[in-house]
Structure formats: structure tokens, C-alpha cells
Amino acid sequence: MRHSTTLGLTLAAALLGTASQAVEITLMRFFGDCQNEYGSVTDPAQANGECGIITALTNEFNATNTIGATVNTQTAEWGAYYDLLTATYQTGSIPDISVMHASILPNFTSRDLVIPLGDLFAEAGVDTADFVPTALENASADGEVYALPFDVHALLFHVNMGLMEQAGLVNEDGSPMLPSSPEEFIAMGKQFEEATGKNYIASESQAAEGMMVRLFQSLMWQQGVDVLSQDGQSVAMNGPEAVAAASFIKSIYDEGLADPGLDYSGAEQAFLNGEAGIILNGTWVVDSYSTQAESGAVALTDYRVADVPALFGTPAVWADSHMWVIPTDPSRTPEEEAAAVAFLKFLNDNSYQWSRTGHLSVRQSVIDSPEFQALPHRAEYAETAQIARAVPRTQNQRAVFNAMISDFNAMWLTGTEPQAALDAAQAGVERILRRNR
Amino acid sequence: MSRPTTHLGDRLLLGVTVLVAALWIVPVLWVLAMSLKPNAVLQQSTWGLLPYPFTLENYRNLVTLSATPLWLFNSIVVALAMTAAVLAVSSLAGYAFARLRFPFRRTLFVLTLAGLMIPEQAVFIPLHTMFAAWGEHNTRWALVMPRVAVPIGVFLMYQFFRAVPRELEEAAELDHASRLMIFWRVMLPLSVPALTTLGLFTFIHAWNDYLWPLVSATRADMYTVTVGLASIQGNFAFSEGLGSVMASAVFASLPIVLLFLIFQRFIVAGVAMSAGK
Predict the structure, then answer these.
(1) Per the structure, how many domains does chain B have?
(2) Which of A212, A221, A237 is nearest to A390 (CA)?
(3) Per-residue DSSP letters for B222-240?
(4) Most buried residue, A41, A355, B73, B270, by most Cβ within 10 Å?
(5) Mutation test of the interface with chain B: which of A158, A265, A322, choosing the one with the most B Cβ atoms within 10 A?
(6) How far is B88 from B94, CA to CA, in rounded Å?
(7) Does any domain span residue B3?
(8) CATH label of the domain that carries residue B214
(9) Would you say residue A15 has pLDDT above 50?
(10) Ranges of H-type helices in A296-377
């Protein structure tokens, strides 16, 4: 009897000891899996690209934290990510931390599926006052902070300066000469094509990434119109401003300034191979294009970045934001929650590493730091941070985006007239918004 | 007199068939070629059906990635278990509907066939909620069970058993064989071609299944190979990791290709059989 009691006590002590020392938590994210390249890298400065940097950051946390926490990463495919995350609430394997777009967050906060972080941040020493105001606003709902903002990503013009020079479209200060109206855009495009024999624009035009939908939203804001109202209740997509923006985008293809047959990688290949003057793509590729242009392995050698120009008056450009949240899980222990918060603080402390990808930093102290300002090309798109307009944080944002993509693509793939395409998109999005509660 | 024309017609048909087959194989060759090229090269150009410059890097990465063998194992277990269960249920039910007399036989049969008209998506959420209530998600059991009731399988076996001459069973009955014995010793051996076809299609379906495993197996160690390979792709894998994506595609389809090569005869016969019915 005594023997078994002693044994029991020893076991209990051993178990308690283990529990207080080692905590394993799960991180669910997209950005891909790059264990092969970065599985053993613990210095984020040695990593490149979104996947590499977040993997190295996780490794560093696991190697250096003093609370015995281990973060296990579970990756999911970008397209299916939110379906999988939602499913975990039913299946019971809820991650302790997950990545989330700012525009998706309301889907989760409105149903209490992520926990409030304000008090936890205050305890852990995460200074929310250091976040740029829009980032903090994006991470909040009803005055409470629900997420750790990690970046702002926006649409940019990536420019091949060699070709621009050939076309005589370079300003005296060495920056690319960009249009300030739709008419000027077409005229410059024609001038470019006559001089170089290449396409003025390369853009993903087929599906999935909806690069032209992002441009459309930017052009709508430039005219002072919100495609989706901020409360997510209504959509204004077939008025005169929308027709003007959509007609302009269609004319880029109709005038032969862009190849409608390109998908994401096709557009990228065209740009890197020197077959196009400007590619429409996001902040996430600045580091990649810059490295490739310097490597001498591609035809593109003189690479520059520019803000999306104001073609319709007010400067404005599409933007969204990556954030980290802690999904609600009643079975999570206080130790696990503490480990999750500690990891979020660690990510926030290393926000600069993430901004090396090309993303805009959300921390004022990082933006002001000399190391951030010394990153290549940052000065060329510094204004983007000021003109970035976040898509409204409404429910079913992803569904709205996808509905717009298919109707918009019809304009250049099957020749649908702008008004008809916009009417179809308007009806499709209204149907989705009616499902919102 | 008509022979030369037929001959010419045959040759024309053969030519067209070869042309279509060649066109059909081009994307496959393209995928294969891309899977053997470095990602950096593919980011600049995906052109060409020859793997030059050549690398095995994409495959090496796939295989050395610790979780891939586990996902492969999960897929094999799930696909084999599902195939065995579907064959057992379909052949037993098919036989019962074809040859046994029991109350409500017709009603039950109609109800079974009505299952054909219900799209999988319609029962998806109730099914998911049900397994959640039982706490059975993230098990191989949950990956197999929802796919065991296959009306088309029951119907296929029903059709097959009906076509077997009654005399065979009567002969066995004269020898005092029990129902079970007749089923086991007479009917099942006869239905090997039908069972092979059904089994192969079930296996292929199980192997390619994506949506249900995606939302049921939400833990990385329970992923099947389709979900697992999709999960390792980056946001913009189609530009930065095209070679890896293609290697995943080849890798995941390899077992199915092997299966096809081994059982080609049955698959073709099976398609012909279902077309003829």
C-alpha cells in the first residue's frame, strides 16, 4: 500500500514537473513549408522570403525561449486555409496560434472564435501604442484588440527601368515616368510598346489572385467610392465610377498593352525575362525581384518599385494585412496560452525581419529604424503606407473577392462589356452579403 | 470491293486516335519535365518538354520531408480499408437485392438508389457535425466510414448478380449448400471482374479524395497524401516553387499509375461493362 502511494506520488511529481517545464503549442499558417531549406536555420537574418523568415523565426523561438515552449508548425494551403481553420473548431484540434488576414478577422471576432488579447499583451509587454493607427484599428473589434498585426501588404508597380529608358519614360531624378490619368496611361503604354516592342504591363489576368480586382478597388477609392460599404451591408459596383474604372482596365487589354493569357507565374516570367515594362504585384515580391535582378541570372537588371499612381485623382491603393490570432479553445491550459502569448511577443519583437520580404511594417519604431530605411527600394514606395486603403473588414470577404474575380475576368477573356460584367458582379456580391449576419 | 475503304477508314481512325492520345500525353510530359527542373529556372520559363537543366532536388525534398511517408501510409491505409469495406457492403447488399426475397425489398432498393441523387456536398455539414459530436475526427476511421455506403456499388453488383443464371444457384441448392455457402463459393468467384472494377474505382476515388480529409483530418499527422502535399505549398507556389508542386503531383499520382498498369485490363473492361449496361 505504502509502496504504491510512494510510486503514485513520484509519478505525479514527474508529470507535474514535465508539465511546468515543457509546453507544446501548435501554430497553423499558410506561407508554405520550407523545412528542407530552413529546418535548421535559427537566425532569421539568414532567411529570405515569407516562408523562410517565419520558419527561421519559429526555430529561433524554440531554441532560445526560457519557458520551455515548443511551437509546432502546421501548414495549410493558402486557398483552403480558412476552411481548414474553421473545421478545427469542430474537429477539436484547434491551433494555439494562427495567421489571419485583417479582412477575414470579423468572421471570427463576430462569433467569438478568437480570444481578446488586450490584457494579455499588456502583461507580456507588447506595446500596442507602437502599432501604426490603421494596423491597430485592423486588429481590433469593438474597442478590444484581437490580433497581433504583422504587416500591411499592398499593390505596387514593379518597373523594368532598362525598358522604360528605351521608351523615354524616365524622370530627371531617375524614377520611372508614370501616368496620372487613364488617357495618359494608354498613351504612355503605346509609346512604350512602339519603342521597345514589348508589353507595357504584365499582370496575372486568369484567375485566383485577382490582381486586376485589386487594381479596380484601388481605382474606385481614387474616385472616392467604397466598393463595399464599411459596415459590409451594401456594395456599389455598377455606378458610373465603376464603369469608368472597369472600362479603363478593359482598355489596357483591348489596346494590346497587356497579355490577357498570363497567369501569376506567366506574368512573373514575362517581367523577369524583360518582356514587359511594369508588373502589377504586391509588396511580397520586392525582395525576390530585387535579389534576382542583382544576380544577373535574368534579363531584368535595373529594377525599381513605384507606388500605384493616382489615375483618377486621389492617391489610393488596395491593401490588406497579415495578423496573428489565438483561436478560442476551452481546453487550452494556462501554460499553453502563456506560451502562445510569449510567441506572439517574440514575433512582434522581430517584426523587422518580416518586413525584409518587402511588406510594410506595422510598427512605428521599425519604420523609423535606420536598418529598415536601409532596405533596398523602400524609399521608392514609401508613399504606399500613406495611401494604402484596407479592404473593409466584413464577413465573407474572401467569397466577395472570388465572385468579383470571375465576373471581371470575363471582360478580357470573353469580351463581356464592362456594364454587363459589373452588373453580374454586383448581383453576385449582393447574394453573398445577404448571407452575412 | 469495300475492303480498301474500310482499310483506309481504319487507318484514318487510327491516325486520329494516335494524334489525340499524343495531345493527351503532352501535359503529363510537361508536368514530368517541370518536376525535374530547378525552381529558379521555372520562375523564368516553364517552356519545354525536356528536363534541362536537370535536377532531382524537388523529389529529394519531397521524400526527405519527414511527414510525407506518414501521409503516404495514411492514404494507403484509408484507401485499402475503404476498398475492402465498399466491396463487402456492395456485394452483400447487391446479392440480397438481386436474389433474396424479404419484406420491403423493393422499398429498400429504391431508397438505396435514391442515394444516387443526393450530392455528396448536401450531406457534408451534417456528416461533419455528426463525427464531431462523436469526437471521431482526426481518426482514420472518420476518413473511411462516410465513404462506405456507395449506392452505385450496390447497383453495380445487383446488376451483375441478376445476370448470373439461376441454374447455377439451383445446382448448388441441390447439393444442400446454404445461402452463405452459395454466395461465398458460387457467386463471389463469378463476380471477380465486377469486384475488381468496383474495387479499383473505389481505390482511385479514395486516393484522390481531398475535401473530406481536408476538413476531417485537421491534424498534420492524420493528413492523407493529397491534403499533405497541398499543405506544403506556399502562397504563390505557382511561381516560386513550381518544380516542387509538379514533383508533388507526380509523386501523388505514382501509386495510381502503377495500379493502372497492373490492372489495366480490368479497368478497361470495367468501363466497357458499365457502358454496355
Answers:
(1) 1
(2) A221
(3) G--HHHHHHHT--TTHHHH
(4) A355
(5) A265
(6) 10
(7) no
(8) 1.10.3720.10
(9) no
(10) 334-349, 351-355, 364-368, 370-373
Q: Which amino acid is at A223?
A: Q
Q: Please list, in sequence order, all residues whose beta carbon lies within 8 angstroms of the beta carbon of residue B153, skipping any fewer than 6 positions away.
A: B86, B87, B89, B90, B94, B198, B202
| Residue contact B238–A264, C-beta within 8 A | yes
- Please give the Cα distance from A82 to B211 (Å, whole number): 13
AA identity, residue A51:
C
Is the CB of A84 less than 8 angstroms away from the CB of B138?
no
- Give the number of beta-carbon pairs within 8 Å between A and B: 99
Q: How far is B201 from chain A (nearest CA, A)?
A: 26
Predicted local distance difference test score (pLDDT) of residue B229: 82
Whether B145 has its CB under 8 Å from any CB of chain A: the answer is: no
Rounded to whole angstroms, the Cα distance separating A363 from B224 reads 40
Rounded average pLDDT over B68-94: 93
Candidates A25, A26, A33, A88, partner chain B, best to mutate (most B CBs within 10 A): A33
Q: Which of A150-154, A238-242, B32-36, B122-126 has the lowest mean pLDDT?
A: B122-126
> B74 CB contacts (<8 Å, ≥6 apart)?
B140, B143, B217, B222, B223, B224, B225
Cell of B79: 484507401
B70 touching A, CB under 8 A?
A: no
**By residue range, what is the domain housing residue B217?**
66-232
For residue A284, the chain B residues in CB contact (below 8 A) are 235-236
CA-nearest residue to B228 within chain A is A76
What CA–CA distance (Å, rounded) separates B73 from B64? 15
Chain A interface includes B232 (CB < 8 A):
yes
Question: CA-nearest residue of chain A to B230?
Answer: A77
A interface with B, Cβ–Cβ below 8 Å = 30-36, 49-51, 74-78, 80, 83-84, 87-88, 90-93, 209, 263-265, 268-269, 272-273, 284, 288, 292, 297-298
Look up the ipTM and state it.
0.72
Residue B244: inside a domain:
no
Per-residue pLDDT reduced to its tens digit, A149-201: 999 999 999 999 999 999 999 999 999 999 999 999 999 999 999 999 999 99
What CATH superfamily classification does A153-319+388-434 receive? Periplasmic binding protein-like II (3.40.190.10)
A267 CB burial (10 A radius; 0-12, 13-18, 19+): buried
Which residues in chain A have their CB less than 8 angstroms from residue B138's CB?
91-93
Chain segment B211-262, per-residue pLDDT in tens: 899 889 988 889 998 888 888 776 555 666 788 888 888 888 888 888 888 8
pTM of the shown model: 0.81
| Chain B partners within 8 Å of A34 (Cβ) | 234
CB spacing of A265 vs B238 below 8 angstroms: yes
Among candidates A80, A91, A288 on the partner chain, residue whose Cβ is nearest the Cβ of B138: A91
Residue ranges of domains in chain A: 2-149+322-361, 153-319+388-434
Residue type, A111: R
Cβ-contact A284, A292 below 8 angstroms: no
Q: Residue B277: pLDDT band by 50, 70, 90 thresholds?
A: very low
Alpha helix (H) residue ranges in A92-223: 105-109, 118-124, 133-138, 161-166, 182-196, 211-222
Identify the CATH homologous superfamily for domain A2-149+322-361.
Periplasmic binding protein-like II (3.40.190.10)
- Across the interface, of A33, A88, A292, the residue whose CB is closest to B232 is A33
Is B176 domain-assigned? yes
All three cell numbers of A333, joined, read: 491550459
Domain A153-319+388-434 in the same topology as domain A2-149+322-361: yes
Give A145 or A40, the one with higher predicted confidence: A145
